[in-house]
Amino acid sequence: MTADYYLANDINCSGFGNFEPIGIYGNEFTGTFDGKGYKITNLYINRPSTWEVGLFGCTGSGSEIKNVSLEEVNVSGYMRVGGLVGFDYEEQSQIHTGTFTGLVEAIVWAGVQAVVAPVLTHLWIIGILITSGQ
């Protein structure tokens, strides 16, 4: 998953159902995702027995995520759960983004990005609730 992607408009995910995260361990997202200032709303992911859960489940070396806001999201998983990124496998992703509002739940390791990338800038967190066993 090494290509470059961008949003051309806002996306309302309310009709998408249970979203499948982009990138998994072993097939990490290593491309560029540019939201171009648009937002993704009503993202719903419910995978209570799954590791690496988020809009991007697992990112790897060279990935960059920028200029996107997530609003009113509801994300739950077992471990390494984030609203934006569940797990940055090689801890070399760059994330430069907008705002995040919503709920993230996990048994272990939860957050906007569960395992933090070395470059994480311009992220505004508003009204987030995180529940985690650890």
Structure, described:
The structure is a single chain. The protein has 134 residues and is an all-beta fold. Helix content is 0%, strand content 54%. The protein has one domain (4-84, 95-131). Mean pLDDT is 81; it is low at 114-124.
Characteristic terms for this protein:
mainly beta; 14 strands
Q: What is the makeup of the main sheet?
A: 9 strands, parallel
Q: How large, in whole angstroms, is the Cα Rg?
A: 13 Å
Can you count the helices? 0
**What structural class is derived from the secondary structure elements?**
mainly beta
Query: Which regions are unreliable across 5 or more consecutive residues at pLDDT < 50?
Result: 114-124
Number of domains: 1
Topology order in helix (H) and strand (E) letters: EEEEEEEEEEEEEE
Distance between the termini: 31 Å
Taking all residues together, what is the mean pLDDT?
A: 81
Helical fraction: under 10%
Q: What proportion strand? A: over 45%
User: What is the strand tally?
Assistant: 14
